[in-house]
Amino acid sequence: MKSYLAKSRLVPLVLIFGMILLIFCGVLYNTQILNGSDYKARSLASNATAQTVEASRGIITDRNGKVLISNRLTYTLVFSDEEFESDTDCNDAIFRLLELCRSNNVKWTDTLPVSKEPPFTYTTPTDEGAFRKYLESEDLPAITVGTLRPTQEAPLFMAQLRKLYGVADSYSDTDARAIIGVRYQLALRDIAGGTYTFASDVSVELINQVVDGRYAGVTTGTASARVYDTTYAAHVLGRLSPIYQEDWVGDPDNGIVGYRDKGYSMDALVGESGVEKAFEEYLHGENGTKLITTSDGQITGEFYTKEPKPGNTVALTLDIDLQEDVEKALSKTIGDMTEADGIRRGGAAVVVGVGSGEVLALASYPTYDISKWDEIYDTLASDDEGAPLFNRAIGGTYAPGSTFKPCTAVAALESGVITPSTTILDRGIYDYYSSPQPRCWIYSSYGSTHGRVNVSEAITVSCNYFFYEVGRLTGIKTLDDYATQFGLGQYTGIEIGGPNSAEAKGALASPEYAEANDLEWSDGQTLTAAIGQSYNLFTPLQLANYIATLVGNGEHYAAHLLKNVKTYNNSAVVYAYDKDPVNVVEMQDSTVEAIKTGMHDLTTGSLSTYFSKCVVSAGAKTGTAETGVTDANNGTFVCFAPYDDPQIAVAVVIEKGGAGAALAETAVDILNAYFSREEIGTAIIGENTLLN
User: Fold this and answer.
1) I need a surface site. Which of 6, 135, 287, 398 has the fewest CB within 10 A?
2) What pLDDT, on the 0 to 100 scale, is given for residue 40?
3) Which residues of the chain have pLDDT under 70?
């Protein structure tokens, strides 16, 4: 009986113990397995500081997977004043860190717009918006005379800041200026939020010195720096820059979201120009967060609460091998011209895919090595004559000269003014108007004429008289209508262009344009407009895309540099360019054939010396664009190839290049570079392969 009672009492105890054990295991499973990371993060957060982990920026490749811009791991020093109880402690810690950087020849971030050495003077603010906010936050009155500056002279301003930050008299003016520069950066972060990256891309040796020396207020971090795997396409690739105040806050009233609200850290670098800027949304990635625990100034643990997500891989339409060949061909031609006459020149060459609008090469001369930007910027910026920073391929506007004649021919043929067989007698002097009475170039040069020619022959011999007549009969309104359909005098759609950018819109000669710009217009202006003069101004990219449209069934595509975007590991396609033509220029087959014939006969006629060396048949048109300066005509040249099945269109413009025929050799070199070298395509390298 007692045994039974004992057993009956034991059963509930066992059940209770089992339930307790089960609950304990459940709690353990929940804390360690299901929510282990969350509880660990909470535990760490109670005695740790959070740090943003910068996501690696996406890489940029050419159309064939060759890497153009990549990244390398770098180390950073981050400074915070949160742990200091007094200005004295903070200033002393800053000075100790500055001394370390000076001894290691390390530069630190200091954008205070005051000279580094006395006697102090104001310098131009790198970010005027941030400086203005700073002055407002410290209740320091300011004026704008050319550039923003405080009302008091720089030495008095520095004395005021020295007092504001409690910088001891024992520090020299130079050392005080350096300390104040750091305090200024900290103040900017207090205003806008975020951390202060004191120094970037520092050595492992310096990191070790900081850790071993237990430098107060300093933590170390990692970031990535851009690596340029090519010295070409500088104007296309662009560069990164810090975030400026106006871009940081944006303009919510006008629907402009600032980087602050996009999740960027204030210390992030963003695209400032080129495709780095155009494709920022794909390249940026998502930053992570980690908690750092410390004890006695030493890091005791790190834990990621959010893993950083690298940016996407952006593939451009550029063929970097072709880009290299185009830049070399352009440089050689201009170099030879300058060596011959001592005149400095600029120029551009563009290659566009027919039937796609893909920009295969976009070269501007003079150019530069973008990987050396910091060390050569002052030289580049001060070269006003050469203007190497100017992207002439999309920003330079030039009278097209006779390269416009195919457009005039299309307008005349499609409007019924002429047929492919219509002939016009070149009389040398076009005397329809009492004034002007322009002359055909052959009459001005040799006193002769081209005789009776049809449209194909007129294109081949570039007969001005023929196009004066058909231009007058067609009328400026119709000429401009077709030019607009071809994209001339219009933004091309290229991603690094558009309003408020490096791209120029150009201009179409018309009474309306003349009136809007306080210029004169008469009926006689139509004559010169028809041969690519008057007020016509186009970019080299517009010229190339116009020819691509003409020989591409009239399909006018937006010029573009983006081919596709894939995730950083190439596992998924984020975006692939697949847009329809902007418009289609309606042209009869006979119209296109008449014009192509005239352009082809030029390559087998007067330009045969050059095109006999071309590996494919082609069509071309020369142009000599008057600039109003004696012996300073610009040379223009357009071509397409192959003649029977056009794949690419090329435009070359050289400032002060003279007759367009002088550019023919350059164009042939470009065509040969494209058609004769072994093509590397996705069929060879695979869709997800990157080439170094």
Assistant:
1) 6
2) 52
3) 1-49, 51, 145, 294-300, 498-500, 628-631, 678-692
Whether 394 contacts 651, CB under 8 Å: no
- Alpha helices, DSSP H only, in 106-172? 128-137, 154-164
404/502 Cα distance (integer angstroms): 24
- Identity (one letter) of the amino acid at 412? A
From CA 484, how far away is CA 495, in angstroms rounded? 20
Structure tokens at 120: 């102090």
Q: Kindly write down the DSSP assignment for every residue of 417-437, as one continuous string.
A: S--TT--EEE-SB--SSSS--
Contact present, 470 and 361 (Cβ < 8 Å)? no
How much is the CA Rg of the chain, to the nearest whole Å? 34
Under 8 Å between Cβ of 462 and 637? no
Element at 6 (helix H, strand E): helix 2-29
Distance between CA atoms of residues 366 and 371, nearest Å: 16
Taken as a whole, the chain contains a residue count of: 692
C-alpha pair distances (Å), 677 with each of 268, 321, 489, 544: 41, 10, 34, 22
CB 649 within 8 A of CB 640: yes
- Cβ atoms of residues 520 and 514 within 8 Å: yes
Q: If 0-12 CB within 10 Å is exposed, 13-18 middle and 19+ buried, where does residue 240 land?
A: buried
